[in-house]
Amino acid sequence: MNIDQQTYDALLRFQRNEITESIVYTKLAAIEKDPDNKNVLLRISADEKGHYGILKKYTGRDVAPYKWRVLKYYLLARILGITFAIKLMEGSEEGAKNGYAAYKDYPDLLQIAKDEDEHEDKLIALINEERLEYMGSVVLGLNDALVEFTGALAGFTLALSDSKLIALTGSITGIAAALSMASSEYLSTKSEGGEGKHPVKASVYTGIAYIFTVVALVAPFIFISNVLAALGLMLLSALLIIALFNYYYSVARSESFRKRFTEMAVLSFSVAALSFLIGYALKEFTGIDV
């Protein structure tokens, strides 16, 4: 088939992307324990392999996959879950998918684009991953810890003025709050009938998310004696946690990162600022200087 060099290079790149994704899906299927999820992944892998075969008719050659990309998404799936890895991969390949539409004289390529937009998206939506089922519990733990604990530590900073005392008080308060929040999530999930969630698992996800946040926010006060410097680092840590979690959530749930990040950051920092002022006011009013 006679095609110009520019088109040939583009199709070769598309072909390499398709075989790379096919191998990624095959590897993910190999580590997936749920039989339904495994079948979905193998079906998508077969689709990608079919697209590779269509492109090979135009290029007339076999191509090797991007090995580093296969390793990247395999490791991401192991650490952050299959859904996150798949959606991140599909999102990064959006440009390649849209590129097919530029070749209107090649019906096969337009069919590939249609498959990518319709068939595979529907298949991906069928994947059922436990960690996403309990995302609401994780959100509850993280959000409550960030809002409540940034405020508490900011208030302690001026009320107590001693980094080690702030760390001790904050740790006790945080652990107690984590246990309380986990218990509340257990009772809430159980009273609602679970909606497919196990009450104990829901409470564990909430408690772990809360304690993880507490440890990250208390750490600056343990290692830094200057309370204002520790407070500044604590707020930066809170911002980083908000950014990382909402990036993960936005990719896994296909939602807007900017909206969720802004909402949580503004809420947490507003409570922290208000608590800081309350701590200062109480210190001045009571005349207690620790």
Automatic annotation (TrEMBL):
Q: Membrane topology for this entry?
A: Multi-pass membrane protein
Per the UniProt record, one Pfam family is VIT1
UniProt keyword terms in alphabetical order: Membrane, Transmembrane, Transmembrane helix
Compartment(s): Endomembrane system
The regions listed as transmembrane in this protein's record are 138-159, 165-182, 202-223, 229-249, 261-282
Positions the record marks as coiled coil are: none
Q: Chief location of this protein? A: membrane
Instruction: Name it.
Output: VIT1/CCC1 transporter family protein
Q: Which organism is it from?
A: Parabacteroides hominis
